[in-house]
Every structure is written in C-alpha cells, then in structure tokens.
Amino acid sequence: MTDDTRKQASETAPGPDATPEATPAPYAASLAAAGPMPSAPPRSQWFDVWRQFTHHKGAMLGGIVFILMVLTVFVGPLFWTVDPTFIDIRARNSQAITSCILTFSQMFSCFADPSSVGIKASWAHPLGADQLGRDTLARMMAGGQTSLSVGIAAMVLSLILGSLFGVLAGYFRKLDGPLMRMTDLFLALPLLPLLLVMVLLFREPLSAAFGPETGIFILIVVAIGITSWMPAARIVRGDVLALKEREFVLAARSIGTTNTKMISRHILPNVISPIMVSATLGIANAIITESALSFLGLGFPPDFPTWGRLLFDSIDYMQQNPERVILPGVAISLTVLSVNYLGDGLRDALDPRLRGR
Amino acid sequence: MLTYTIRRLVLAVPTLLFISVVIFLLLQLAPGDPMAQVPLTVPPEVKQKMREALGLGDSIYVQFWKWLVQFFWVEPQVLIDNIFGTHFADGKLRVLSWQTRSPVMDIVVQRLPQTLWVVGMSYVVGVLIALPIGIYSAYRQYSVFDQLGTFISMVGFSVPTFFTGVLLIVVFSVGLGWFPSIYDTTLQVNDWASFKLQIRQMVLPVFVLALYNAAQISRFMRASMLDNLNQDYVRTARAKGLGERVVVLVHVLRNSLIPVVTVIALGVPQVFGGAIITEQVFKVNGLGQLLITAIEANDLPMVQTLTFIFAVLIVLFNLVADVLYGILDPRIRYD
Question: Do A185 and B19 touch (CB under 8 A)?
Fold first, then answer.
C-alpha cells in the first residue's frame, strides 16, 4: 500500500488497515493528556508483514533456496565458464564425481583420481557429461536459466491478464457478467491438451519469424500465460468487489477521483497481496507446465536445454547414469517446492487476521 | 434443486458449443497436411481427391456442422445400436480417424479401460490415503505427525509426476527389479498368476498418481477439519459427554467432508488430463497416449474429439460438484 492511500484510509475509515500510530495531529494532544505516549517508533505495515514472514520457517527456507537457485543459475555461468554446447567426446557418459562416495574404502583415492578405481568421472565435469560429452553442470545452469525465465515471464503475463480482468470485472459492474463468463469458459477448457495443440500449431510460424529459440520461448510463455490467468482473476475480482464498498473508496469518489486514478492509486495497491500470492503459485505452475511440455517432447528443441528437456533426454540413459535423470528432476522439484513454501508464508504474512499471532 | 440442475444443464450446452468452436478453429489453423505420409509417387490430383474424401474441401462451417452432427447425433445412435441391437446408425458416417480410418469412438472405447483402471484406481487410492491423513493431522495440529504430513503433502504437490514416475522406475525397476517399468496392456487376466502380474504392473503408475492426488486432497481435508474443530457445536458435543471418537469422526468429519467432496469431484477431470504425462512415462496406452500420438500424427478428428471429451468431463464434474454442494449442505440453496 502506498503512503498516500494509507493516509486516505486512516483519515476516512479507521478500519483494520489504518495503523493506530498514524493518528492525525489534533488528536495527539488529547491522547497525550489521557496517558503516556507509546515510546516505540511507529511501525510500517510492511515491517509487520516482514516480521510475520520471518516467523514462518518454511517460507524463509523456501525463499533462501529459491534465491540460491536463481543465483546459481544466472551468476554461476560466470564462474563455471564451460560452454554448455561444447562437445568433449572423450568424456562422454562420464559419471558425476559424487559416485566416488559409493566406493567407500577407496573414497579418498577416488576423489583424487577417479580413473584409478575404474570410475569414469573427472573434476573437469563434476556432475558428469551426457552421451555427446557435453558438461552436465553447464547444461543444468543453461537449462535452469530457460526454465526460470519461462516461469517468471509466464507468471508476469498471467498476472497482468489476471489482474486486468479481475479489476475490470470487479470495478465495472457492466463488465462483470461477460468477463466472469469468459473466465468460466476458460476454466472449462482442457488446458494440457490445448497447450499441446497450441505448441504444435504455432511452433513453425513463430520459429520462422523470431528464430527457433526466441520463437519457442515466446510461444511457450504466451501459451502458459493465457491458460493460467483465471484463478488470479477470480481472486482479484472478489477482493475488488469487497474494496469497492469500503469508506475510503467512497471518500475518494466524493472528492472527484476519476476511475483510472481510483484503480491505480486506491484499488490496485490494496489487492497487491493476493496478486503476490498468486505470483508465487504462478511461477511454480509455469515451471511445471514448461517442463511437462518439454518432457512430452513438445517444448524447446533438443539442443536448447531446459530442465524438463534434460530430464526427457536422460531417460534413455537412466540405467547407466541415474544421476542425469535425478539432477534436473531435483532441480525442478526443489524450485517448485521452495516457491510453494514462499507462497504459503506470503499468504500467512499478508493475511492481517493471522498477523501478530 | 431440480430447477437449478436443469438450468445448469441447459447453460452447459452453449458452454460446450463454444469450447468445441474454439478447439475446432484452433485445429483449423494446423499447418500439417494429413497427406504428408502418402508416398511422393502418388500424383497431386489423386492427393487432392484424397483430401476431399477426408472432407477437407468443404468450407469451415460445413466441416464443423458435419462434426457436430456426427458427434452428437450419429455417435449416440451407434451407442444405442450396440446396446439394444437396433439399426439406427446403419450407413451413416461416423467421426473417422485420419490415422486408422476407423471410427474415433471405437478407438476411444478400446483405450478407455486402461485409463479408467490406472487413473480411476489411483484416484480412489489417493482419496483413501488423503482422508485419514488430513483428519489426523488436523486433530493433532502442530504435532510431529502433522508437521511430517504437511511436509510430505507439500512435496507430493510440488514434485511433478514425470519426475516421481521416472524416480520410481530408477529405484524399483532398474535398481531393485521389483516392478516392471512398462505397463503391458496385452496382458489377459484369467488366472491367479496373471492377476498378480497385473497388480505388479499397476503398482508404480497408480502410486505416482495417488501420491499427487493424495497430497492435494489431504491439504483440503486438513484445512476443512481445522475450520470445523473450533466451532461451537464441537464444544457442545463434548460438553454433553460424547466420546472423542464420535465428536471427531461423526460431528466434525461430516461437516468437513462437504467442501472436500466437491474438491474430489472437481479433481476427476483434471486427473484425466494430468494422466497424459503419467501414461507417457509408464507407456500405458490409454486416452492420454492416444491424444499425444494423434497430435503428433496431425489426426485432427481424433484430437478434436478427445479434447472435446475432456472438456465435457470438466463441465460435467463442475456441475456435479455444485449440485453435490447443494445437496450435502442444507445452508446452501440455489434459487
């Protein structure tokens, strides 16, 4: 919430939003007469939210894991400068260095020189290499960049669509009926089959227009975005409907606030919390959908790794190199799990009924 | 209630029509040519004739109308013929697959048992696991069991089925060799040995899907139980001296099941959709696998029909969920 709206809210409607510390000046004198002034400095709303958030262990852990994941994937390539497409044919199908742990007695000599105990692994490829000798660590980081970018971009798109439709439907009574019927229609569509069909249909034209990688990126982001905005729209609409009845909206209207100003300065800042919760869940959903598409062979092209694609490509080799399947799978699951915990914590922190417990 | 149901059924018709139009128009944009697999030695005029034989020469709305008539008028007649031995549909054109030139619905009927067995069984197993876990972890909120239960359900909810499936194959088929990694649909169950084989090959796919469903449903069950456990009527029930078992399993459970039942109903069509991936992992040749092969082969009538069947399931179970909610909860009245 911006300072502006809070002032507005506290002056007109001392509801649950209005912080008691923000008492207007005229009353301060009478308060001082009634008793000692509170000595603690006034706290902002976001401070309370942050404090509640830090109390949620899962959410903190999830946040840390997610930030670490993003850092590894985007900053990691600066330190691990192996080209993910470079083919080191001698190292093909080599195992991760961690397979040394299973040699128990020779563990230390194995870590020093893996070939001495007959394991095909080397420090040049700490997580092994694929059937062509491409470095798995580098490919995991490159794949993570794509997966996370797709997840975040698709989430942003679906949130923009969701909050747009939600605010419009909640704010303008005339649009409510048609927009909500459209939401219901979209909810009744079988999404995964339609996504598969969409990807199949538009792959070629978009690849031709923007090049194979950008084309598929746009296609997948748009496809996921326009099939996942409905829950956010419904939640936002419900909140806007409730907000419209509040006194501060009435007050703002009475001083002649236009609809655009009203939405941008009073409505949107107040529905930011459900939008943020939907955002975290949206990232999780988008990452899973993208990997599912790649897993079905309908996502990114084979030489352009994503976590789902890496998992799909490794299935044929899972008997020799099980870690090649496990690594991308764990990466996807860990990201989604951390984002889900983050969302859980955010929901608790942003819910004023739970805060302060 | 009856009027509400009827009104919803009537409203479902335009919804389904709209969905079928969307699917149809989307498929019309398909760049693929169903004649792509025909040898190059076939002259272009013949190919053109073959295209027209598939009904591709007509304008879009004629094609759409034909599909509508075939799906909503001819196929039910075929169904009636099969049940009662009548001859309504004799000589009428059915929805034909471009891949096999046989009626789409016949293939769907062939594939349906596999999907129903695996997916249906996993949903039942998932619900049976989820309900006790949800009840107990709500009853002992913040206990070790609850912490563990919520963590496992969060994991089950976050880990995609294609990874759990592959992981289970790595551990139980490759490593331990307990279960087969591929679902063999040609297996005939006629004696005890083949029954055991059937059970063994169903364990992994059913477990993967059941874990995913149980994770979602147990979260709902727990939340709903928690809502009800603090209500006044629970205190009343305890105050009049009812046993803890009766209070929780009769009074609270019956009230908490209301939203959970609707969630279970809403989840049924999603299970059909989500099972596409699990079917692909374990090579179950059910409806999901049929859809994937049809999409890859540009078999538009098949894709159209299958997607539409999924849409019908979604609309139908939405309706079922709403009606169930009204029947189970007397506080809710639609009028």
Answer: yes
Nearest to B75 by CA among B63, B93, B87, B61: B93
Report yes or no: A296 at the B interface, CB cutoff 8 Å: yes
Which tokens in the block code for residue B205?
A: 């796919």
Q: What does the mean pLDDT of chain B come to?
A: 81
Rounded Cα distance between B271 and B295, Å, is 20
Token pair listed for A294:
């790649």
For chain A, the straight-line distance linking the first and the last C-alpha, in angstroms and rounded, comes to 22
* Residue A30 clears pLDDT 70, i.e. is over it: no
pTM (2 decimals)? Answer: 0.79
From the candidates B11, B146, B158, B322, which should be mutated to test the interface with A, based on the most A CB atoms within 10 A?
B158
* Interface list for A 56-95 with B (CB within 8 A): 58
Instruction: State whether residue B310 sits within 8 Å of chain A by CB.
Output: yes
Residue B11, judged by CB atoms within 10 A of its CB (0-12, 13-18, 19+), counts as middle
Which alpha helices (DSSP H) does chain A contain, by range? 3-12, 25-34, 45-55, 57-79, 107-112, 136-171, 173-188, 191-210, 212-226, 230-244, 247-254, 259-261, 268-270, 272-295, 307-314, 322-350
Three-state secondary structure string covering A182-196 = HHHHHHHCCHHHHHH
SS3 (DSSP) at A134: coil
A197, A292, A329 ranked by CB distance to B167: nearest: A329
- Contact present, B49 and B56 (Cβ < 8 Å): no
A327-337 burial: b if 16+ Cβ within 10 Å, else e: bbbbbbbbbbb
Question: Is B301 in the A-facing interface, judged by CB distances under 8 Å?
Answer: no
Radius of gyration of chain A (CA): 26
Residues of chain B with C-beta less than 8 angstroms from the C-beta of A298: 295
Instruction: Give yes or no for a contact between A133 and A91, defined as CB atoms under 8 angstroms apart.
Output: yes
Report the sign of the C-alpha dihedral through residues A252, A258, A263, A269, in that order.
negative
Nearest to B249 by CA among B228, B268, B263: B228
Mean pLDDT of chain A: 78
* Tokens coding A299: 């996502």
Q: pLDDT higher for B107 or A98?
A: B107
> Closest Cα of chain B to A44: distance in Å?
30
**Residue of chain A whose Cα is closest to the Cα of B297:** A200
Contact B292 A296 (CB under 8 A): yes
Predicted local confidence at residue A255, as pLDDT: 92
DSSP letter at B249 equals I
Work out the number of other CB atoms within 10 angstroms of the CB of residue A203: 19
Q: How confident is the model at residue A19 (pLDDT cuts 50, 70, 90)?
A: very low
CA B230 to chain A, closest CA, distance in angstroms equals 16
Instruction: Find the mean pLDDT for residues A74-98.
Output: 75
pLDDT tens for B162-216 read 888 888 888 888 778 788 777 777 777 778 877 887 888 888 888 888 888 888 8
User: In angstroms, rounded to a whole number, what is the distance separating the alpha carbons of residues A312 and B63?
Assistant: 37
- What are phi and psi for residue A129, nearest 5 degrees? -140, 160
| Residues from chain B contacting residue A193 (CB–CB below 8 Å) | 273, 276, 291, 303, 306-307, 310
Do the chains contact at A311 and B310, CB–CB below 8 Å? Answer: no
Mean pLDDT of B109-119: 82
Residues of B205-221 as b/e, b for ≥16 C-beta within 10 angstroms? bbbbbbbbbbbbbbbbb
Which residues from B are below 8 Å from A337, CB to CB?
154-155, 158-159
Contact A221, A150 (CB under 8 A): yes
Cα distance from A247 to chain B (closest Cα, Å)?
A: 30
